[in-house]
Amino acid sequence: MTASGLPGSEFRERQHLDPFVKDEFEARTGRRPVSRTLKSEAFPNLGPVDVVVEQPKLLMELKWSFEAPGKVFESVWDAIKLSILGPAFGFDHLYIATGATVGEWGITESADLFETGTVDPLEMWSRDLEPRRGPNYGSTVGEDLVIGARGNQPIEGPREIEVQRLGSFPVIAGYELVLVSVAGNSELRTWPQADVP
């Protein structure tokens, strides 16, 4: 990623991180991952999963938070999404790779999503965002995510998500990429609906 020559503030998820991850996977395995939409009644109208591999059965979501205060918390959406889709479609390996400034990792609202342990995604969804961040300016993690998704939100979600931190990698000056695996409790619960414009 440093070969891009871009500072982290100009690096972007779709333009840079996505092709980098797919290029690396293809170079190491000879197979290029794709992005693909997987449908779920528990979480309708989801966009594509960023990285889909059929052998081994692997899903990965990517995030690049280039500002401060950042949007690392958006990975909460990805964790819920993967925890629903993985078991439903037989994908055993579920990963989130998120990049942010070194300083952001100590202050993000969702820091525990990137440490080994068990998290309650609904509790994370309800956490306050201070300060609120543009362009959505939601008051909580969940409200901000739902505004950004134009009202789309889970109908059901996992009670718990098991997280395993796999590593932290300096990738661009002042930025780290953190990789975790996630596994959702197969039991889903009704998800409270945010009333947003």
Give start-end ranges of low-pLDDT stretches: none
Number of domains in the coordinates?
Answer: 1
User: Strand count, sense and closure of the main sheet?
Assistant: 7 strands, mixed
Cα shape: globular
Order of helices and strands: HEEEHEEHHEEEE
Question: Can you describe what's shown?
Answer:
- The chain is of the alpha+beta class.
- It has one domain.
- The chain has helices spanning 13-29, 75-89, 121-125, 141-148, and strands at residues 34-36, 49-53, 58-64, 93-101, 117-119, 156-158, 161-172, 175-184, 188-190.
- The strands form two sheets. It has a seven-stranded mixed sheet. Strands 6-9 form a two-stranded antiparallel sheet.
- β7 (161-172) and β8 (175-184) form a beta hairpin.
- The longest helix is centred in the N-terminal third of the chain and has 17 residues, at 13-29.
- It is globular and about 45 Å long.
- The mean pLDDT is 93.
Question: Briefly, what is this?
Answer:
The protein is an alpha+beta fold. Helices cover 23% and strands 28% of the residues. The mean pLDDT is 93.
Protein traits:
197 residues, alpha+beta, seven-stranded mixed beta sheet, two-stranded antiparallel sheet, 4 helices, 28% strand, globular
Outline the secondary-structure elements.
Layout lengths: L12 H17 L4 E3 L12 E5 L4 E7 L10 H15 L3 E9 L15 E3 L1 H5 L15 H8 L7 E3 L2 E12 L2 E10 L3 E3 L7
Parallel strand pairs: 3-4
Antiparallel strand pairs: 1-2, 2-3, 4-8, 5-7, 6-9, 7-8
